[in-house]
Amino acid sequence: MATALAGCSSSSDKPTEASGPVTLTWWHNGTNDPAKSVWQSVADGYHAAHSDVSFKVEPLQNEQFSTKVPLALQSSDPPSIFQQWGGGDERTQLASGKLMDMSGSISDWVGGLGKAAEAWQVDGKWYGVPFDLHAVGFWYRKDLFARAGIQAPPTTMDEFNAAVAKLKAANIAPVALGGKDKWPDAFWWDYFAVRECSKDVLQSSMKNIKLEDPCFVKAGQDLKALLDTKPFQNAFLGASAQQGAGSSAGLVANGKAAMELQGDWELPTMIPLTKDKAYASKLGWFPFPAVNGGAGDPKAVLGGGDGYSCTTKATSACPDFLKYMLSTEVQTKLVQSQTATLPANPAANSAVTDASLKQVLNSMQSAPYLAMYFDRALPTSVGQALNDAIANFFAGQGTPESIVAAANKAAADQ
User: Fold this and answer.
1) Considering all CA atoms of the chain, what is the largest pairwise distance in Å, rounded to the nearest integer?
2) Bridge partners of 23?
3) Among residues 393, 384, 369, which one has the least CA distance to residue 414?
4) For the chain, what is the domain count?
5) For residues 100 and 97, what is the distance between their CA atoms, to the nearest angstrom?
6) Is 158 helix (H, G, I), strand (E, B) or coil?
């Protein structure tokens, strides 16, 4: 699986050897169990084998990383390890001079993670590594599809629109969307762009930080056509993506909406959002449908992954800890506990047993390329401007052209 996006260069310090006891401050986004307890057990497991390395584990809400990490990297006291999504975020963070170049420390094992992990490289140097991989697609309720008379998941946008009409006729909310958080909106525009634009156009556009090809405007036109069908639940603009039973994830988990365009992480995300312990058995998954006439490969996947970076505050214990995290044993533990869904280490793929997640994994493995979510692939300020413009478009403001213009203006203003 080839990664469609590339990076640019910067410099950073190499790890220093630990001399004496070390305490690593670790920021991750596992604020709830099981993830919170599992990550603590991973820290405890490493400490048990390396008594001179201790951890101060500090879970943060996912949305806090976009503000707290830049501030921390500008300070004299950044965390030792922090959650890292690679791509443009990582390139932006390099300017702080606080990211550790781990290349020499991990060169003997990082190649085993495969091509998808290269989104955590900048100019061939490793400033982060993924611990899991992600693909975005449609989670759907098999029972609600059956009630609406939908025989099979749609494979084209025409079939998708027909499914929306059938669900509406059956008084079922077709699609749940957490518009309050903005980033779920972006998945729709991003995927239309992945279907409309060729791999070469995507690759060069992200590298040059310019969305100039007409295919990006066409993506907005496709999105406008979708919005005109009114596929989302009532008041979707004020709905959260993942917090509470009324979130978009909660609506699907509780059978209040038929589908949601989200990442593979949605399956464990739903655990605290429903009292139905059998919810997973009622869910299915299908990839984003093909767009008629698009230049993109219809099997290309939008996604990314979760990973970690070490900062210059850390010592060589940090990349060694990441090696432990990427071991088959720990990766299997992460998947089996639903702390991760798709492991970054392919040696742990057998731990994926859920039928829907197996479909996601097969889709990633057979994809001709993985296009990173645009807000991560682009520099942070540009990705944020793009997400804001897409969210405004969902709220009825702007045009297909203004979405592209907003991203290009942010790139010019860097």
Assistant:
1) 68
2) 54
3) 384
4) 2
5) 8
6) helix
Lookup: tokens for 367: 């994809």
Radius of gyration from C-alpha coordinates of the chain: 21
Tell me the average pLDDT across 239-267.
96
Residue 308 maps to which CATH number? 3.40.190.10
Q: How far apart are CA 352 and CA 358, in angstroms?
A: 6
DSSP-assigned letters across all residues of 340-359: -SEESSGGGGGG---HHHHH
- The CA-based angle 224-226-233, given to 5 degrees, is 115
Host domain of residue 91:
2-134+303-372
* Per-residue pLDDT tens over the stretch 320-377: 999 999 999 999 999 999 899 999 999 999 999 999 999 999 999 899 999 999 999 9
Q: How many helices (H) and strands (E) does the chain have?
A: 17, 13
Alpha helices in 257-337 (DSSP H): 266-269, 317-325, 328-336
Q: What is d(CA 329, CA 41) in angstroms, rounded to the nearest whole number?
A: 13
308 and 89 Cβ atoms separated by less than 8 Å: no
pLDDT for res 367: 92
122 and 190 part of one domain? no
